[in-house]
Design brief:
alpha+beta, 6-stranded antiparallel β-sheet
Amino acid sequence: MSIAKTGALQDSYKYVNIAIDSFDGRLLQGRICHDSLEEAVPFGCISEMAICLENLFDELRYPMKSVDQRSFAGIKHGGPSLRCGEESGKRRLQGKLAEFCLHVKYRFHSTWQGNIRDLRNGGTYSFQSFLELMEYLDRSLGQGSDIKHGLGKRMCEVAVRNFSHFVMGGDVSHPAVADRREFASEFELRDEVERLLLPLPEGGEEGNIISPRSVMVNAGGFGPMTFVIRIMFRRNATWQGTICWKEKRGQVSFRSFLEMLLLMQEAVADSGGWNEELKAASGHAG
């Protein structure tokens, strides 16, 4: 990612234009435009957008992090490779679906605080976390979600079964719940975790039957990545809890949904050969 020294306008470095081209299947796709960038940076999901922006904020040293990002032990940090587009970053991008101006003012509590403006209708929304920013985009570009109650579980298991350039897909489950709930985007992942972990409605009864489970763990860290997630607190407009990477027997406390998401991305990307291993295994099985 090429960074120019200054923007054309005073304080322009504080603002990022985001052009949204698609939200099909709740998979956020678009391009990032900033006055310091020589080229627009495309992203294929909201995780990639967050990683690109985190790298940009670090380069600009604005906004500064209040705490360092946590990592699983033993991860080799090479930094994600960003795909550069061909459009100039010096002009406003036109998205097929929407355009937003994002101003992240602070990075407290391992998440973001700021505001976002819809450049088509002029509306502005203030957010206190990346999770609130996600909820706004979900409502603005799609139907959003209105999950008020869940199954009252204390933990859930997230299995990432496919991964391609930051896009994760898999399922969310619990031993006392018969079905595995599939997800193909971060928005669906958030919803399925909420459905399991939010408190029961008043008068609801918690099931305690342990369902038969099939478990697949491949040696060497390849194959599906499995995470056990516990949400212990809901503070600062986000989630706080622990995430355990079962295959590597590593556990990290996360301070926000964004940090949890980046930990999962880090773990899956670290096992870069797992797609080939799965293809080989599927070939032998067939």
